[in-house]
Model the fold of this input.
Amino acid sequence: MVQRFEKPFTQQEPIPETAIERACEILRSGRLHRYNVANGEVSEAALLEEEYAAWQGSQYCLAITSGGQALQIALRAAGMTAGTKVLANAYTLAPVPGAIHAAGGIPVLVEIDENWHTDIDDLRANAEASGARYFLLSHMRGHIADMDAIVAICDELEITLIEDCAHTMGAQWKGTRSGNFGRVACFSTQTYKHINSGEGGLLTTNDSELASRAVVISGSYMNYAAHGAIPSEDVFQQTRLQSPNCSARLDNLRAMLIRAQLPLLEDNVRRWNERYSVLQSGLSSVTGLRLPDRQHHEEFVGSSIQFQANGLGPHVIPEFVEACANRGVEIKWFGADEPYGFTSRFDSWTYLDDIPQLPKTREVLATTCDLRIPLTFSKNDCQEIAAIIGEECERRIGS
Done:
């Protein structure tokens, strides 16, 4: 009998019971809007901003409706205007070029290397050729590139670095938290990220002017003083009338859900990495698969795992993915010509005016497979998943 994996890849762990009780209190109060508080009360959203700023090690934090909105607001608050060119690594998800486009910018896509990192040489070449002064760096699927080299190029060419940390909340590179390298960082608390509030986002920075602009852009009106981790009033006096209102405020209910899970994050990182290690060990022994080289100084969060099915080739991978799916293992493939679900390739974004060829990126993504690792899976589950993938891959070697 063919072994089949029965657990869903989209099932998250339950929200803590204390948060469920607090949710009922908030619902009974009717005070869901972040500025709708009783006299002397501090909103859940403001408390979240204080606590996340302290956890991240940043001076300022803004809670907003999604990671995508955080990206748009970060770009606007950093001074990006319509028609501005913005560098972005080509291996990412659609919200990244979408944020640049929605804010009026022009994405300039940068090649990646065989380990899904930004290609440093291509970054420099594109920066010099385009004159772009912004780099929206996506730490896609938790792979952190050479931050020493990236920061050096950005400093040399006076490029504002904006970090998309949707997949690296809790990760570190050489002891520095992901998000603390650039001028501003953006995080997501969408259901499949490291904290689950359904939808939600966070923006952190040490730049007081950028922080004040971001708060006003998020839709504070003149209620900015009710935020939890913000600059002083004199900074807002300079920016409060100069920034558009984009109405992206996080509500108290979702803010409370994030607050309840933040203290659990460090332990969850450990649990994710235990499961990642089991999958890595199992898949590394499979003929025809290549796993990334992870640097010893990259303290990643193994909430997903990627591999290249180099031994199969793009013409066989669809059959391989389907066979795994028939046995309950959901693999995403980045080499498909058509986008599927949350997965798309850079040449799928046809709203962009000029899509480059990017041969290196195309070659890497042609065999790139991606696997979500929910914490609802046990280590034994991960062994079973690796075994199924190995059987289906080795069955097709040489096809």
User: Anything to note?
Assistant: The first strand starts at residue 60 and ends at 64.
